[in-house]
Amino acid sequence: MLANSVASQIDLHQRWGGVVPEAAARAHVEAIVPMISEALLSSRIALNDIRAVAVTNRPGLIGALSVGVTAAKAMAFRLNIPLLGVHHLEGHLCSPYCLPEVPPFPHVSLVVSGGHTELVLVEGFGQYRLLGETIDDAAGEAFDKGARLLGLGYPGGVAIQESALRGNSKTYSLPKGLSGDTTNFSFSGLKTAMLRLVEKEGSSLVVPDAAAALQETITGVLCERAIRAAEDANAVAMTLVGGVAANLRLRKRLAQACERAGLAFFTPPINLCTDNAAMIGIAASWRLAIGETSDMSLEPIANSDLVPK
Ligand code: KG4
Ligand code: ZN
Q1: Which whole number is the average pLDDT over 7-17?
Q2: How confident is the model at residue 309 (pLDDT cuts 50, 70, 90)?
């Protein structure tokens, strides 16, 4: 990895308490050229040294995706090099492939981000089977909405993690969502329970205790279902990827659960968990190696499943 430049829009989203699509798209327009220049500068390579250009084209906010797709097409056209559109979740799935040892196949990947919570069986590169998913909110959304209810601000995941350090997770009890022998998730009940807790306790609410309870409940459910899915599928390893994989409590709990279950455990460094371009490059390098490319008709796509149902 020669460079991994990230243009954060956290300040912008903080102003609104979340992502406003039009504002995000405009910020992308402003950031794209400086970002490409910065990446080239820090990688110390010239534009003419680039042999292919990869871009996230699905799924996501159409305005933001089109900025990247348009810039990538312009580069590919001008430099006369291959273009490749990459699925955002495939980027996350491939993020651990930057580690010195590539996770052995078949492995189960717990993909947890602001928009997705999925358990994917990875049988080989590009061979995916969906083992479980959320039926409502994503895990990252549960962190973000919980943080907002607790007045901890945006983005919620890190805020909950920090507040929870000073809290007792046993003070309040929160629902785990779906019960029984399932590999799916439901986090919307958690949001309602948090709202009720905040209303009931009023000014006597101990915010760090509530944050710790929320973090413990979300990470507990994620670990339990991930291990179940891996055992049912006879996987040999587990990977933890996506923005929520940056959560230190989740990293620790899943590592311990995998050790108990005899599964090898892999998760990328924190800066490759939250959205970044390097993971898209890693996924693209595998696809380009088997001769895949996109043509100039490549379009941004708002909704797209990694594993077609
Ligand atoms: O993958 P990502 O950067 O963007 C999407 O594709 O959605 O994931 C963002 C999500 C947000 O919900 C954010 O709150 C969560 O990842 N997140 C965390 C942590 N860092 C980011 N959640 C829990 N603990 C963290 N440390
Ligand atoms: Zn993401």
Answers
A1: 84
A2: confident
3 state SS of 167: coil
Where b means 16+ CB within 10 Å and e means fewer, 120-137 reads: bbbeebeebebbbbbebb
Report whether residue 112 contacts ligand 1, using a CB cutoff of 6 Å.
no
Token look-up 């339990």 returns 224
**How many angstroms separate the most distant Cα atoms in the chain?**
64
Copy the structure tokens of residue 294. Answer: 């996109």
Nearest CA to ligand 1 atom 8: 243
Cis omega (within 30 of 0) for bond into 175: no
Ligand 2 centroid distance, CA of 116 (Å): 8
User: Which residue type, as a one-letter code, is found at position 36?
Assistant: I
Query: Given this model, what pLDDT does residue 210 score?
Result: 98
What's the CA gap between 275 and 2, in Å, rounded? 17
- Model pLDDT for residues 224-269, shown as the tens digit of each residue: 999 999 999 999 999 999 999 999 999 999 999 999 999 999 999 9
Task: Specify the pLDDT at position 155.
Answer: 85
Residue 118 contacts residue 244 (beta carbons within 8 Å): no
Q: Is residue 92 within 8 Å of residue 308, measured between CB atoms?
A: no
The model's pTM: 0.96
